[in-house]
Amino acid sequence: MPVSLSKGGNVSLSKEAPGLKKILIGLGWDTRATDGAGFDLDASVFLLNEAGKVRSDADFIFYNNKVDAANSVEHLGDNTSGEGEGDDEQVKVTLDSVPADVAKISVAVTIHEADTRGQNFGMVSNAFMRVLNADSGAEIARYDLSEDASTETAMIFGEIYRHSGEWKFKAIGQGFAGGLAPLARNVGVNV
Amino acid sequence: MQQFIRGQRAKISAFSGRTSQFYLQITLSSARVRVFDFVCFGVDSRGQLSDDRYMTFFNQRRSPSGEIVLEDLADQDAKFEFDLGAVPAHIERLVFTVSVDGAGAMRDLDESFLVLGERGIPFGQPLLQYRFSGADFEIEGALMLAEIYRKDGEWRFWAQGQGFKGDLSALLRHFGGQETEENSASTASVSTPSVPTASSPISAPTVPIGAPPSPPISAPATGSIVVTPPAPVVSSAPSALQKAIADAAPGSTLTLQRGEFAGPLLIDKPLVLDGNGAVIWAQNGPVVRVSVAGVTLKNLEIEATAPENFDDADVALWIDAGAQTVLHHVRARGEIRGVAGAEGQWRLPPALNLGEFAARQTNSFRLEIEVPHACEIKSTVAGVSPVPARLEAGRREIELATIGIGADTFLAGQLEILAGGVARTVPISGRATNEAAPAQGILLWCVDR
Predict the structure, then answer these.
(1) From B434, which residue of chain A is nearest by alpha-carbon distance?
(2) Less crowded by CB within 10 Å, the N or C end of chain A?
(3) ipTM
């Protein structure tokens, strides 16, 4: 029975799924039911230290930089239309390989060409982030953003973080003004 | 009057707490499309028109009890009037639509807008405006312009601005309604709602509201109790939360599920109330009152959403004399009484609207406030920072700077002023555009204004 989180809530992955080694982070949203330019959403992952900053630009994992230096976090690719059941984008994390100085893994989603297409998260339905046990495929926890999204074009959906020797998942749902670039700069990436 | 952009959502109580009666005026302009159809669909929790008496349009201008009325109708504009307090529980959403009558598409629209405003009270105000034009659309001929919908016991507004190619028929298909076959040679504007028949799959007169609400949990003698937000129906019955407090054993912990709970609330026994990020709100205060010692409040937001002009209506948190209370991560929109270190003369703006400011540049705003204690100031809006972040007691000036916010970004968040273990909050709004010039030291508010 997966745990359902609301904004701000967190859950211990280590307690919910003892012996957890690898997780899949699944991100999804409904394809556009109305007519008009489709929504193309991109997931980005930031590996952050205790200070909430990347250690280097290589800690910014996205469609052009799919794996980190330690081979612990892998972006499994983009689904450009949001069609199909389940996840639209997935990120695989091998927990034991995550470098010790990485305190949290922050997962953001941005709308591609949001400005030119005049789109924002308020127009996207049923966005969610979930965490699965990559070995068993079992869903551990899920966060449905629904009402937490509005006119933002970039959002931090959630984060996976270390806490007293455990891994936890926190539902963030924090919209970020101004798209991916300022979001990345905010955590210390040079873009 | 606040400007909304497509996709924006807000609680109606954020603008108006004085009335449940509103109007929605749609004013279209197009040189190429002469005539539009205007329809308000009252749909159930599945988004279906299961009760087609709640399709309000030229051929059926009143819902059964007059809750929704198409008051004015012309070729390019219409005005709906409605009373949200009277809308029956099986109607979850009011969807305000426009569609072309005949040829053309919404990309042919010139500058158009809708306005939501108050009615049924003296000095009713227009509340918000959503502007749109053909540049926002392509081939769509039928638009869901705006929705007013129930969520966590409150009505909210959504500037949806999306639609379908085609005309009114496309909307009817979307909402599961049927067209009556009159003369199907031309599909122009056949729009009588079908009379429900025994065979119609959508003719159930009423449909229960979506998911069954979780009932308040019966209270064990001690330990933790989880309280879920009430079902999405506005109710005047004693709140589930007040009942949970009545049922709780002294010394127990009540944990709220994140969500919104209607107040007011009286806490009259020692216990721990862990809001878990939940909001307790009421139009008028005191919203939360603590009358005994030994209470702990944590992770809670308390809001007096629209106080009227009487004594103490603006009090969010009231702690009786002698009722020592532990506060931990408590935020309040409104006054606070009975907390040492938070009392005294606070003079803060009710809200800060930065208006339209220059995208991607640095904008600076000023405000003067009066604080009776040393306090810390934070902004919850990324890219907006107050300087200085710490104030000594007295009349003080703060600079608010916005840095590098992208075009067409709407700001919605709050300034938090922390003293005595409680944060007072001031909502911040504004919008970054490419058109506006950078703001340089614009004075937003001062104490003696």
Answers:
(1) A115
(2) N
(3) 0.71
